[in-house]
């Protein structure tokens, strides 16, 4: 299973064809006004120097493709063809206009979140279903949860081929490598994330899981009987309890690890600069917000901290 490098795109050209095409001043009337008599047409005004245009273009193309012919996308480089932008009194780009029956009926400027772009298109074309990439992503998560790492890796890689830079697919692929024991490849995979996606929740969770795996490698060989003997003699041996929690986590005993850290917190919240609370939060991030151990552990942590 090899990591998939994202394809580079300038966000300007887009695929050519019936649904998505470039236009000029000369072909604008046919491509936009006449075409909108049959089906709604979205006009994307962009320029090669416009960074936000490069973010918006691929998302618009994906959503228009998902709409399956219910709407079309026409792209115009206003550096090469400024007349239409001037007629529409465009003052900043990206500028997007929706046309129906030969007339503009909706529009916006700047970059919108994908959810708002989807609503914009659905106002024109009706409900837009999940894209093939989104379907692969969902199936990848299901396969990962079921422990089918090969299938999960193939699905996440397929999603990345369709949507280079997708943070959830990158994080999912990294988790596949991590669960297979290839920590270095997991780290390399996370480096595929674009800078603007480095703080995405899925990427952060994968980073936390990798950091935890590094700690687990050190803790796995620890003799737990010695730690348990220390705790039997002195339940407030916080260092022994903390080490025991890390060993339990390294061996897959998530509940046991969380129990030990929560017990330590009940004895001394401030021990070692709140090391137990900090480690708990790192565990929860690595496990993921929907994990049952995370949910239960967070409730118990809140009860302890606010009691």
Automatic annotation (TrEMBL):
UniProt keywords (A-Z) are: Disulfide bond, Electron transport, Redox-active center, Transport
Has UniProt tagged this entry with the keyword Transport? yes
Q: SUPFAM superfamilies in the record, alphabetically?
A: Thioredoxin-like, TPR-like
Q: Does the keyword Transferase apply?
A: no
Q: Which Gene3D superfamilies match?
A: Glutaredoxin, Tetratricopeptide repeat domain
| Superkingdom | Bacteria
Q: Quick one: a GO cellular component term? A: cytosol
**UniProt-listed PANTHER family:** GEO12009P1
The UniProt family comment states: Belongs to the thioredoxin family.
What this protein is called in its record is Thioredoxin
Annotated organism of origin = Tepidicaulis marinus
């Amino acid at each position: 299973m090899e990591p998939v490098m994202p394809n580079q795109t300038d966000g300007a050209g887009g695929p050519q064809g019936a649904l998505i095409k470039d236009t000029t001043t000369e072909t604008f009337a046919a491509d936009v006004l006449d075409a909108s008599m049959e089906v709604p047409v979205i006009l994307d005004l962009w320029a090669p120097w416009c960074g936000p245009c490069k973010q918006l273009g691929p998302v618009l193309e994906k959503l228009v493709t998902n709409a399956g012919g219910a709407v079309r996308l026409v792209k115009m480089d206003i550096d090469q063809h400024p007349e239409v932008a001037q007629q529409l009194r465009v003052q900043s780009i990206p500028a997007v206009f929706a046309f129906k029956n030969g007339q503009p009926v909706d529009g916006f400027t700047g970059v919108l979140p994908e959810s708002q772009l989807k609503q914009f298109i659905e106002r024109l074309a009706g409900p837009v279903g999940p894209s093939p990439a989104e379907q692969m992503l969902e199936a990848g998560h299901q396969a990962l949860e079921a422990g089918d790492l090969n299938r999960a890796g193939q699905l996440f890689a397929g999603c990345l081929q369709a949507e280079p830079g997708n943070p959830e697919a990158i994080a999912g692929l990294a988790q596949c490598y991590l669960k297979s024991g290839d920590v270095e490849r997991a780290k390399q995979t996370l480096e595929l994330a674009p800078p603007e996606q480095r703080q995405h929740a899925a990427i952060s969770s994968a980073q936390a899981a990798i950091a935890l795996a590094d700690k687990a490698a050190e803790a796995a060989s620890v003799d737990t009987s010695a730690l348990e003997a220390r705790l039997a003699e002195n339940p407030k041996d916080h260092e022994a309890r903390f080490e025991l929690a890390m060993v339990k986590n390294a061996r897959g005993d998530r509940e046991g690890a969380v129990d030990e850290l929560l017990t330590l917190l009940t004895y001394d919240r401030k021990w070692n600069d709140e090391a137990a609370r900090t480690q708990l939060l790192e565990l929860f991030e690595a496990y993921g917000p929907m994990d049952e151990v995370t949910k239960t552990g967070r409730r118990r942590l809140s009860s302890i901290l606010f009691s």
